[in-house]
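Hey,
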Amino acid sequence: MSWNNQNPWGNSNGKPNGGGGGRAPRGGGGGAPEFDNIVRELRTRFGGGGSPLGGKSGFTFIAAALLLVWGLSGFYRVQADEQGVVLRFGAFHAQTSPGLNYHLPYPIETVLTPKVTIVNRVDVGIRGTDESRNVGLDVPEESLMLTGDENIVDVDFSVFWLINDASQFLFNIQNPTGTVKAVAESTMREIVGQNDIQPILTEQRQKNEEQVRDLMQRTLDSYGAGIGITQVKMQKVDPPAAVIDAFRDVQAARADQERARNEANSYANRVVPEAQGDAERIRRDAEAYRAQTIAEADGEAGRFAAIYSEYEKARGVTRQRMFLETLERVLSNTNKIIIEEGSGIVPYLPLDQLRKDIK
């Protein structure tokens, strides 16, 4: 199937071809194809003879279509884990949030969409870290640090960070990973240099991690790096390999010392309260005895004063009564024979007593 050699859009005078001119033959049948209808419609819209796309109106149509396509190319989408940074002629212009956005088409404006929710990791003192076991090749030139008491400690740690300001991250630092690593190493050396080796090896690890994280964040903020430090994790904190056995012996001795101290404190905590309780009981008993003795003395003094007062009123009667009361008290548990004055005494034989003696 082929077209004839005439102009497919029309004849030389701009009018449609008649008969079979400009018509693709179809087997043996006639009839105008749909393409001819399309050509007529375009020619009618853009007017005039000749090709509807060949004149001034056709060029305008093509230019408008290209301009439309160029304008639509400015639409872009920012994903939920990204942040859009619009550049105008290569310089920062604006930041955009996730979703569908628009910028002036290239080359006026371009857009960068860095991932801002991905947590990045930088290791200091180790290489090739195994995520499951946190082990890797040790790098002594990064991990060996000097403590405040002039000892050497081997510290391997990891820093986790993400982008919190895409524009600062893209334009203020050239090598983000290298910058984070350099700041992390210098910060850890500063914190380690402010502390003695023993707390660093034992109970102060979490505190050191927090101090390093905070100091790193302040340093990166002063750089305008647009980076947020989420965590600093110490993977290994040990003395140098050459003296690690001696340090472990010292740690074992310190552990024994701490255990003995705890046992002594436990014994003291048990014995001291008991002693304090006994002392308090003795003190209260003494106070009770003192109060009782004073009360008895006060009572005796009061009784004596009362007796003396009665004695002053009737000395003979009082003296007789006191005499009788004294005899009653002294002779209360003895056998007594009371003889009235002036009465005779009849002797008798104590047969009951003799019977007891015979038995």
